[in-house]
Amino acid sequence: MNDREFINAIDADGLPLNIAVNSGRITHIGAQRANQPARETIDLEGLLALPGFVDGHIHLDKSFVGDRWRPHQPVASLRERLAVEKRELASAPPIVERADALIRQAASFGTMAMRCHVDVDATTGLTHLQALLQVREKWQDLIDIELVAFPQAGVVTCPGTAQVMEAAVREGVQVVGGIDPTTLDGDAEAQLDIVFGIAERHGVKVDIHLHEPGDICIAQLQRIAARTEALGMQGLVAVSHAYGLGDVADSVVDRTAQVLAKAGVSIMTNAPGEHAFPPVLRLRAGGVRVFTGNDNIQDAWWPYGNGDMLQRAMLVSYRSGFNTDEELRVALDMATVASAGVMGKQGYGLQVGNEASFVLFRAANAAAAVAAALHERVIVRHGAFWGGPPRLQLQAAQFNEAAPR
Question: Is the pTM of this model over 0.85?
């Protein structure tokens, strides 16, 4: 016998959907009811069921969510920005408190997993990481948090950072990062030697921030792809932002997409407002996995964001000029399946045998939900209701407050 059966939902295409659950896992999903009875039947009354969201790129240690509003401060250089950030964070509440507030907010929007980039360098040491390891443990039953050792200040130009990054991996980081090997560090080969060297020694993944323009970006992507193939790391390497892919001709994008696809290198874009960004559909047509995340949320870098990945999917769609249902569904895939794939999240998605965690909306189909960036939603985690706005609560539903205290 199943624990629970959710009936009269609709799927991403707007077609009838019923979901049976036992011990927190999906035992049946489809247009027909389950063959086995359930102890409890819940009529979803036509709500749209979508897989839980996966934030493929977030900075939990930087955000001021849970703190007072801090007006954005314009600067003229990256070094000035780093100085502003250091000053603002010094007067902010502890990382544990702010990260907890942001995770709780993201969870309330239906985020089930996230890849978090954590500042790790010779100056910061492992302070940020130790705070986030504590937060990750607190939330482990509700959200999978994958940690990236992120050398914000550079690797080569910040002596001692390489050793701290390696120590971070020994502490439990699953991904090693990098940043602008040419324009920030001034020595692409040296930075990539360090980053991929750590990854090879410890069997971890790679995710490199790349803000470099045009031809510099393309050359960097080729270097990264070559190293990925040489080490047999296909599917384990991602490049975040890759702004330069939005600066070059379509023919260059197509050639680069072939290189990336062959090496299994994924691209993350959050479709930022002030930059060119990778052409999503063109890269996907070339076989590249493209995913998305919120990136910075209300911090010293910019004042925007709330942690809602459906809103992020809408912003990706808006900036990309997505209008058709098929295109809007691409943005949703970037915020769910593609990000989950980059993280290697197991048992994810609306399929038999997977974790029974999904999000419910009052919408005609998935495209409609993305286009409207619907705020109201009901969240199911491990087959049980979790929170939810009153207007969407169902008469039969007993919502539980399962967030850790």
Answer: yes
